Amino acid sequence: MSRLAEVIARNEEPIRLDWLDNMSKSVQRADLMSSGELREQSHRLLSSIVRGIQVDESAQLSGAAWNETKELLQEISATRAHQGFTPSETANFVFSLKQPLYNTIRKAVSDPDELFRAVTAVTLLLDRLALLTLEAFMVTREELISRQQQELLELSTPVVKLWDGILALPIIGTLDSARTQIVMENLLQTVVATNSKYAIIDITGVPTVDTLVAQHLLKTITAARLMGAECIISGVRPQIAQTIVHLGIDLTQVITKAKLSDAFALALQKSGRTVVQANGTSNGSAPTVLTNAAKEK
Amino acid sequence: MERIPILRMGSFLLITIQVDMHDKLAMQLQDDVTARIADWGATGVLIDISSLEIVDSFIGRMLANIAAMSRVLGAETVVVGMQPAVAITLVELGMSLPGIRTALNVESGMELLYRTTAVQPGVGDERSQA
């Protein structure tokens, strides 16, 4: 065991108290975690550092002796990411251990050369530990983001049945390749399940239509046509109509309508149904729909 | 040798593909369909691919070819019951099969055939009376 490890091991308890005192002044967030939890975390971390440094003092953190510390730090920063700590607060949890260690080493070591070596070793070690902490923090945040992305995808592609044999697919948000895949699969599966001949794709909620989005839409429509269903695009806003023409996107093979209601009326008409007002009254009540006025024309 | 059966329903041909298509089978089918249309004077061909789960570009081209050949022989082709995965695969392969009519199931496919062949009475009508 080196001199440094010995010093730290001998003074573990005072270092810990000094560290806690230091944290309570600077980085403790009483609103996010209790002081009991913090005490317990620092106790576990410090004792694992002491065990690590007794075996391997190289500050490379590569030996098996440091595995426990690494795992512990990853766990701590993962919980902190979930609790809502900022990155610097999480890193400061480790950095605030520096001062107490310096104080202890200064008291215990008198030879300037040895003091310098010890301080350098401790600094290197803590820097690496803090980097590790930040990395684990970022990984947790990234996982959180990708999970939210996934949830957003699942939320935003409902296929609704408007009438017997007529489906509607309101798309909200930009269509990228991954989303198109999900939208397309959802739509085609519902077409099969409900035996629908008409599908209305409503793009009122799509902020911009560029060539890529149009291509994705056309793919979906072609796939639906291959299965025997006809697609109508609705919700084309004036600006989007202008963009489509300026970009030279060819939508001549597709029926497009300005409003969902127009598209729905067209689908009803194509499936041989007409909408009439009940009893000829015009008191503002919703008109009823008579179906199957004629067999499909 | 393995063959895909071709059933006759009035003046239409009904083909149900229930096995995995390999290339030889597809070529055989092409031969059989054209021969049957000529023999029986069929005016419509209905291909049910609802149990087909895997397609490649060759099968897609075969479907397009059968449709084109039938048209030359005076018969309309309707492909029915395509699975979502198959449709997506064909689109990703860039095969939108523009010359092929499609329907959701055999029933609506038959309806479509009756409608389209009634519109064009010239080609196979008096033959279908026989």
Task: Provide the descriptors you would attach to this structure in a database record.
A: Globin-like; Transcription Regulator spoIIAA; 5-stranded mixed β-sheet; two-stranded antiparallel sheet; 11 helices; 7 strands; 10% strand; rod-shaped; B: 130 residues; alpha/beta
Description of the structure:
The complex is a heterodimer of chains A (297) and B (130). With 297 residues, chain A is α/β, with parallel strands linked by helices. Chain A is 61% helix and 10% strand. Chain A contains eleven helices and seven strands. In chain A, helix 5 packs antiparallel against helix 7 (112-155). Chain B has 130 residues and is α/β, with parallel strands linked by helices. Chain B has a single domain (6-123), classed as 2-Layer Sandwich (Transcription Regulator spoIIAA), CATH 3.30.750.24. Helices cover 48% and strands 17% of the residues of chain B. Chain B contains five helices and five strands; from the N terminus they run ββαβαβαβαα. Chain B has a five-stranded mixed sheet, sandwiched between helices. In chain B, strand 1 (6-9) and strand 2 (12-16) form a beta hairpin. The model of chain B is unreliable at 119-130 (pLDDT under 50). The chains are: A alpha/beta (297), B alpha/beta (130).
